[in-house]
Design brief:
CATH architecture: 3-Layer(aba) Sandwich
Oligomer: single chain
Order of helices and strands: EHHHEEHEHEHEHE
Number of helices: 7
Number of strands: 7
Structural class: alpha+beta
Strand order of the largest sheet: 1-2-3-4-5-7-6
Radius of gyration: 17 Å
Helix content: 25-40%
CATH topology: Aminopeptidase
CATH class: Alpha Beta
Shape: globular
Number of domains: 1
Largest sheet: 7 strands, mixed
């Protein structure tokens, strides 16, 4: 196996990164969009709303030889503004058409009912994904270790991430020192997605002093 290299992402990496992040859509986007392929295209569209590189959401990739096998994105400090509703709506109309958006509107809107706030000052993991065929080979662990080292370098008091209550990687994060500190549930969201809600996971970090 080639040595894994973790490096800053560039604009040339965007298509491969979007492919990896959305290779296996989760239950939530599939339920909200009503179809696996639509969920994948929706995720790719959302991913590409943020330019790479940018200071608000920093991106790195993991490479084995000439192949990009992992993606990690983090936010720290002033998180800035999320995607504008106008940008997201425009992308949805392009993907679903106006009638499709109208049909899926209540389902998509229910997602906001389980939003969670990132604690101020957190080193927040926005994305950590490994390409299919390269999972369970230590790539995710090395990306997470890189992230923790970077968080400590920045003197962040904690690392955080937000995911769905049914996410299969929750036990993996718990073994890595994260714990669930907050849960948001909502019956409307659950009715559309068959998922109870979302969780905030945190890992306290030692001070570098």
């Amino acid at each position: 196996m080639d040595t894994l290299v973790i490096r800053p992402a560039t604009a040339e990496d965007v298509d491969r990164m979007a492919e990896i992040v959305n290779a296996e859509p989760g239950d939530e986007p599939i339920a909200l969009m009503g179809d696996v392929e639509l969920a994948r295209q929706y995720g790719i569209g959302l991913f590409k709303l943020d330019p790479i590189p940018n200071d608000r959401r920093v991106s790195v990739v993991a490479e084995e030889g000439d192949t990009t096998v992992g993606v990690m994105q983090y936010e720290f400090g002033d998180l800035g503004r999320p995607h504008s509703r106008t940008d997201v709506l425009r992308m949805l109309v392009k993907l679903l058409g106006p009638f499709g958006v109208a049909r899926r509107f209540r389902a998509i809107q229910s997602r906001a009912r389980v939003d969670l706030t990132v604690p101020p000052g957190s080193f927040h993991l926005a994305n950590l994904h490994v390409a299919p065929g390269h999972q369970d080979h230590g790539v995710g662990g090395k990306l997470l270790a890189w992230a923790e080292s970077k968080a400590m370098e920045l003197d962040a008091p904690r690392m955080t991430l937000i995911t769905t209550t049914d996410h299969p990687r929750i036990p993996w994060y718990e073994r890595s020192g994260f714990r669930i500190t907050r849960t948001a549930t909502d019956p409307t969201y659950e009715r559309y997605t068959q998922i109870a809600g979302r969780v905030l996971m945190e890992k306290e970090l030692p001070s570098v002093d």
